[in-house]
């Protein structure tokens, strides 16, 4: 059995605005009460077992560059080219700093570290490690400080922030295990493509949450 202190848990963007449970502005499919209960239960078990919990969250300023409302004439979900040449999906405003939509749906008692991303209005961020401008969050430093070598990851959304965070974790040298049961994606086709991309990058899959299996990582 691996040393629990070497295994860290990353819960990605488990926030109100991404869930049907809270009628979120960018709710993903199948994110109702049953899903919320599963994630809360698993996170509680993992915390009680001694695994450090790292929760990443979107923490957008109200004028964030990814919001369609920040661009004259833009429409939700279309893709535009920014003045500097970057492409950007236009999302409905979501997870705005200090609003109920940004609320993390896990009891704070179970979260050891809260990592806020996309705090710069000029840069999108799909990964908990950095934004599109290359500005790094504290996540990698915190993992290194704790001596983490293996990461179990789950949350929202499979095809966006979960994928991006998992891939960045692999690039940073971590062994990464995705708990599929505890993930939800924006769309079936892009989620399937994301799973294939993650598998090709060496990310392992745990189909259903099993505390004993996590202890054996």
Report on this structure.
Helices cover 25% and strands 17% of the residues. By secondary structure, the chain is α/β, with parallel strands linked by helices. It has a single domain, classed as Rossmann fold. The strands form two sheets. The protein has a six-stranded parallel β-sheet, with helices on both faces. It has a two-stranded antiparallel ribbon with strand order 3-4. Helix 3 packs parallel to helix 4.
Sequence-ordered SSE layout with sheet pairings:
Layout: E1 7-12, H1 33-48, E2 53-58, E3 79-81, E4 87-89, E5 113-117, H2 139-145, E6 150-155, H3 158-171, E7 175-179, H4 188-200, E8 204-206, H5 211-215
Parallel strand pairs: 1-2, 1-6, 2-5, 6-7, 7-8
Antiparallel strand pairs: 3-4
Helix pairs in contact: 3-4
Q: What would a concise description of this structure say?
A:
This protein has 217 residues and is an alpha/beta fold. The chain has helices spanning 33-48, 139-145, 158-171, 188-200, 211-215, and strands at 7-12, 53-58, 79-81, 87-89, 113-117, 150-155, 175-179, 204-206. It has one domain: Rossmann fold.
List the keywords.
single chain; 5 helices; Rossmann fold; 217 residues; 6-stranded parallel β-sheet; alpha/beta; two-stranded antiparallel sheet
* CATH topology descriptor: Rossmann fold
* Radius of gyration (Å): 17 Å
By secondary-structure content and strand pairing, the structural class works out as alpha/beta
CATH architecture: 3-Layer(aba) Sandwich
| Lateral arrangement of strands in the main beta sheet | 5-2-1-6-7-8
Report the top-level CATH class: Alpha Beta
Give the count of structural domains. 1
CATH superfamily: Isochorismatase-like
Distance between the termini: 7 Å
The count of helical stretches stands at 5
Main sheet attributes: strand count, strand direction, barrel closure = 6 strands, parallel
Shape descriptor: globular
Report the count of strand segments: 8
- Runs in which pLDDT lies below 50 for 5 or more consecutive residues are none
Give the ordered list of helices and strands.
EHEEEEHEHEHEH
Strand content: 15-25%
Overall pLDDT:
96
Helix-residue proportion: 25-40%
């Amino acid at each position: 059995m691996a040393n629990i202190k070497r295994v860290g848990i990353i819960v990605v963007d488990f926030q109100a605005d991404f869930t049907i449970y809270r009628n979120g502005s960018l709710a993903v499919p199948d994110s109702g009460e049953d899903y919320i209960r599963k994630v809360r239960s698993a996170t509680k078990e993992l915390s009680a077992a001694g695994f450090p919990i790292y929760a990443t969250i979107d923490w957008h300023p109200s004028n964030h560059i990814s919001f369609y409302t920040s661009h004259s004439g833009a429409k939700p979900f279309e893709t535009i080219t920014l003045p500097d040449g970057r492409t950007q999906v236009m999302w409905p405003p979501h997870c705005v700093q200090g609003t109920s939509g940004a609320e993390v749906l896990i009891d704070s008692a179970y979260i050891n570290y809260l990592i806020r991303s996309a705090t710069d209005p000029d840069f999108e961020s799909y990964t908990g490690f950095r934004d599109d401008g290359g500005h790094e969050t504290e996540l990698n430093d915190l993992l290194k400080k704790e001596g983490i070598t293996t990461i179990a990851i789950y949350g929202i959304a499979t095809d966006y922030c979960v994928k991006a965070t998992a891939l960045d974790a692999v690039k940073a040298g971590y062994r990464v295990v995705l708990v599929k049961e505890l993930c939800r994606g924006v769309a079936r086709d892009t989620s399937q493509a994301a799973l294939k991309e993650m598998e090709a990058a060496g990310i392992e899959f745990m189909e259903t949450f099993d505390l004993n299996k996590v202890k054996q990582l």
